[in-house]
Write a structure and sequence with these properties.
heterotrimer, A mainly alpha, B alpha/beta, C mainly alpha, A: mainly alpha, two-stranded antiparallel ribbon, 11 helices, globular, C: mainly alpha, 1% strand
Chain lengths: 285, 415, 286
């Protein structure tokens, strides 16, 4: 059944969106930065992984961890070297957004130079699949499902059962008050950027392994994640992000089946409609 | 202007020029550092059109100048506008060396009546604005009478200019009909019409009953679709197709459609972009086991082959005749330089250099002369072993063949 | 030399577009990062009228400008209630939707991906004449914009940008100003688009992608927000510099990336150090 097959593909896609969206909304909710360069971080993880694993033959796990680590560091660096200086010198959050665009361009130039815009797929072996009648499920998709479950589970525990998570949620609710009651805002900011960027890097690594990456992929995945976040509600870090990602995964998969040239249009129309009609997301009260 | 010396390949802006800039540009509201920046930019802009144009080749050492070749004297310059950056940059990187080697080989063999060829290479960036700028630069600044170019949207933008300036452009585009639109637009390529008979023969021999085609949602797709469909119907083969968008990375929706149709074989026919490799790979990864076909030689390109990985095995395609023995010298030279074998487009572009050489020899070093001589090309020997003749509509007719990847090697097969 | 004429014509087109964008971004505070959409509407309208219906280009141009103005006003209305961020996001979305829709369903000369073959009246067929037309149009647009921003209407725009409540307290309706200036901006973008179509000989949707809007942002950002002079300086300097890179001896396969890299750095640098650009007057504290 073709619809079933596409459903499976859609669920697989939503895993990537969920990882990126979680990181993005974490940053947006806590420090209110619209981190366009999140897509850049995603790509950094992917490109490093590709270079190490397929280029130099480094062990898969090691290369993947390196990708994640470098992505995490990069995200933090971008905040420290670009966003904070903008804020310190009187710029507002919109200026940070433009600066983030700038960072995207800078790195995209670098990725373009490195890859010559050739699709980089970080594997030569085909993916293993399990066939259930007319439906083929890639083992990678099962792995992603498990990974997302683990990540979200850990995120839940961290955000709702630990002091660090309490501090993050405090910052999300009321930044001014959080500082007053002794939350180490700087440390929380750093942690948030590190964790979110690590998640993006992870998504980048697996995408590089799965369908491969081009310099375009970063912004494209980012925007889908943004729609997912807006759909689920920017304040709703867990459930909202998950539901939003699932919806976007299914949307892109079925759009890819029914009217492939219109997938981007579908995503961006969804973006515009959501922004105009219900900017606080479907779950807002 | 002495400050900008292209031949040295370095930017030399002397302090004198910066000082000059500071004196002439007064901008009171701007801080000194920004003032210097503005001045430098003005100087660059002002100097730009007046820079002494010298024949230069692509990033590597200019073939025509450095080779200790029998050809000597004032070189005949050819313009090259390839996408060196932008979405098609990969092809530019692969093909400029092929063109350079063509020039080198031409010069080693005596050039054109003893004089060497040399290249002026500009970046077309794969977009219309840069394409026109690049062509204007090589034609109106560097004064070349012929331009070697590539990519449909670039060529479409450049053909009007070719008409106006009476400078022929020649490319390897495969879009049927574009060469009809301008007497100065030439194409050396293999089109669907050339290879369809091979495929058709093959389908009959294999006894296929159902086929599925992937085509891009561009003009080429619109033109190829009825050709494929018509041929399939003629042979009583059930046909279905899906149109894909260039630049996507995930085609599983479309592939599911193919899977649902249950074909005996799948063919992709398009611009030869990496999307086709992706589709093929994702088809396999969604459980489709049937043979895979392509209507162009794109799988010979490094990035395409890498995207398919192990799944390239058994892939069957058609392209210009690519005989490894005939092309051995070129293949070895290219492999030495790039680390991998040249693809079909490299061969076509290498051939173009020799075609231009012939055209200059027969028609003279003028736009109209080259245009006339190119139209008269007959039984030209391709480096790949086949023969090429220019058709009445400025599209070449080449010897074509069918190939298959066997044990990782490109092997010619009979339909 | 024709090469320089071509470059100058392209610069004129971008000046008109930069003025159009600066009017809404710099003077009115409406952060549009998708203005390439309007460039596309103008270009495609003018080119389609000329190629498919044989309309004389000099008539197609004003028609395209009006169509773009109307389209701009219609599309901005639902977005006006949004705050800066979401507004910007929505304009980016609009850009992508317009470009992709044109790509999938828009007019095409058969055999190509876009429109080519815009014919000019014989009088304008040469490069010099085209440059002349572009210069005239640019001068007119710049003068008109200058007149607008120095008028009482222009003062209201700046009031709208800086202290909307003050504007309201005077009994003026912000919506009126926002929609009307957006229409003016659309009109100018339509002119720019029509000229662009004839300068490039060939347009396809890639010419109007989201990245083009980013480039426009760099031009007006560098030139200066809320400055007509800035809208002239920005594109002139950057386009000249960009083409100048061809002559500078950088390996050609790096020059294109260099441009993108520099633009990114410029955006970052501007946001950190000088949000008002070279000669701009609006240091947005947003």
């Amino acid at each position: 059944m073709i619809a079933l097959q596409v459903l499976v593909s859609g669920l697989g896609l939503s895993g990537y969106y969920a990882l990126v969206a979680l990181g993005f909304s974490l940053i947006f909710a806590t420090v209110k930065v619209f981190h366009v360069a999140h897509g850049t971080v995603f790509l950094a993880g992917g490109y490093l992984f590709f270079f190490l694993h397929r280029g130099l033959g480094v062990n898969l796990l090691v290369a993947a961890l390196a990708g994640v680590a470098v992505a995490a560091a990069l995200g933090l660096l971008i905040d420290k070297l670009v966003y904070l200086p903008v804020l310190r010198r009187g710029g507002g959050l919109f200026s940070v957004f433009i600066a983030s665009l700038g960072v995207s361009l800078v790195f995209e130039a670098g990725y373009n130079l490195l890859s010559r815009n050739v699709l980089q797929v970080a594997r030569t072996e085909p993916l293993t699949i399990l066939t259930f009648g007319a439906v083929a499920i890639r083992v990678l998709d099962l792995f992603m499902a498990g990974l997302v479950a683990v990540v979200f589970g850990l995120a839940y525990l961290w955000l709702f059962r630990s002091t660090a998570g309490l501090e993050i949620r405090a910052l999300t609710d009321n930044p001014a008050l959080a500082g007053v009651v002794g939350v180490n805002v700087k440390r929380v900011r750093n942690t948030v950027f590190l964790v979110a960027s690590a998640l993006a890097g992870l998504a980048g690594v697996i995408t590089a392994y799965d369908t491969g990456i081009v310099p375009d992929t970063g912004l494209r995945v980012l925007f889908i994640a943004v729609v997912a976040v807006i759909l689920g509600g920017v304040q709703n870090l867990m459930l909202g992000t998950l539901v939003g990602s699932l919806c976007l995964g299914l949307l892109t998969a079925f759009a890819g089946l029914l009217f492939p040239p219109w997938v981007s249009v579908a995503v961006f129309l969804a973006l515009i409609l959501l922004i105009v009609v219900r900017p606080k997301g479907l779950f807002a009260t | 202007m002495a400050a900008l010396e292209k031949e040295r390949g370095e930017l030399m802006i002397t302090k004198g020029h910066i000082a000059k800039g500071e004196r002439t540009v007064r901008n009171r509201r701007v801080s000194p550092q920004l003032g210097i920046l503005v001045a430098v930019l003005f100087v660059l802009a002002a100097c730009a059109p007046a820079a002494a144009p010298s024949p230069s080749a692509a990033p590597a050492k200019p073939a025509g100048q450095a080779a200790a070749a029998p050809a000597s004297g004032e070189p005949y310059k050819i313009g090259v506008t390839f996408p060196l950056t932008g979405p098609q940059a990969a092809w530019g990187t692969l093909l400029v060396p092929a063109v350079e080697m063509g020039v080198q080989d031409v010069n080693d063999a005596g050039g054109v009546s003893g004089r060497p060829l040399s290249l002026v290479v500009e970046d077309s960036k794969g977009d219309p604005q840069a394409a026109v700028a690049a062509m204007r630069k090589v034609v109106q600044v560097d004064r070349v009478p012929v331009v070697q170019t590539i990519f449909t949207n670039v060529v479409t933008a450049q053909m009007t200019l070719a008409d106006q300036l009476k400078v022929p452009i020649i490319s390897t585009i495969e879009a049927p009909g574009l060469t009809d639109r301008s007497p100065y637009n030439f194409a050396n390529s293999v089109t669907m019409a050339d290879v369809l008979p091979l495929h058709s023969q093959h389908w009959q021999n294999q006894g296929y009953m159902k086929m599925f085609a992937f085509l891009p949602n561009t003009s080429i797709g619109e033109i190829y679709s009825p050709l494929l469909k018509g041929e399939a119907e003629k042979l009583g083969i059930q046909y279905d197709e899906a149109r894909f968008k260039l630049g996507e990375t995930d085609f599983r929706g479309l592939v599911s459609r193919a899977k649902d149709f249950g074909p005996d074989m799948i063919i992709t026919a398009g611009h030869g972009t990496i999307d086709e490799a992706n589709i093929m790979r994702q088809a396999r990864e969604l459980g489709i086991q049937v043979p895979l076909y392509g209507s162009c030689g794109c799988i010979t390109a490094k990035s395409y082959r890498e995207a398919m990985g192990e799944l390239a095995e058994g892939f069957t395609f058609t392209t210009l005749k690519y005989d490894p023995q005939a092309a051995e010298k070129f293949i070895t030279a290219y492999r030495q330089k790039m680390g991998f074998d040249p693809d079909y487009a490299a061969l076509e572009n290498y051939d173009i250099v020799f075609m231009i050489r012939d055209a200059i020899a027969r028609g003279g070093y003028t736009g109209d002369g080259i245009q006339k001589a190119l139209s008269e090309i007959k039984d030209f020997q391709s480096i790949g072993g086949g023969t090429i003749s220019m058709g009445p509509n400025r599209q070449t007719k080449q010897t074509v063949a069918m190939y298959q990847i066997r044990n990782g090697q490109v092997t010619e097969i009979q339909p | 030399m024709e090469y320089v004429f071509f470059l100058a014509t392209v610069i004129c087109v971008w000046i008109i577009l930069s003025v159009a964008a600066n009017l809404v971004v710099g003077y009115t505070g409406l952060m549009s990062i998708g203005h390439a959409a309007y460039l596309a509407i103008g270009a495609y309208t003018a080119a389609s009228l000329n190629i498919f219906l044989g309309v004389n280009f000099l008539i197609a141009l004003p028609i395209a400008a009006v169509v773009t103005a109307v389209f701009a006003m219609l599309t901005v209305v639902p977005l006006l209630k949004l705050d800066t961020f979401y507004f910007a996001l929505a304009t980016m979305g609009l850009n992508v939707v317009v470009a992709d829709t044109i790509h999938n369903a828009g007019p095409r000369v058969p055999g190509t991906e876009g429109l080519f073959g815009v014919t000019l009246p014989d009088l304008l067929a040469s490069s010099e004449a085209r440059l002349g037309l572009a210069l005239v149009l640019a001068a007119v647009c710049v003068a008109a914009a200058q007149w607008i921003v120095t008028s009482p209407y222009g003062r209201s725009l700046r009031a709208l940008r800086d202290r909307e409540d003050a504007l309201r307290s005077l009994g003026k309706n912000p919506r009126y100003f926002q929609i009307s200036i957006w229409g003016v901006s659309g009109f100018l973008a339509g002119i720019a688009g029509a000229m662009y179509a004839t300068t490039l000989f060939y347009i396809d949707p890639t010419v109007f992608a989201l990245t083009v809007s980013f480039v426009l942002l760099v031009y007006i950002g560098v030139g200066g927000l809320a400055s007509i002079l800035g809208s002239i300086l920005g594109p002139t300097l950057l386009l000249a510099f960009n083409e100048g890179l061809r002559f500078v001896g950088l390996p050609s396969d790096v020059a294109g990336q260099t441009q993108q890299f520099l633009y990114g750095l410029l955006l970052i640098g501007l946001m950190i150090f000088r949000r008002q650009g070279l000669v701009g007057t609006y240091d947005f504290k947003e």
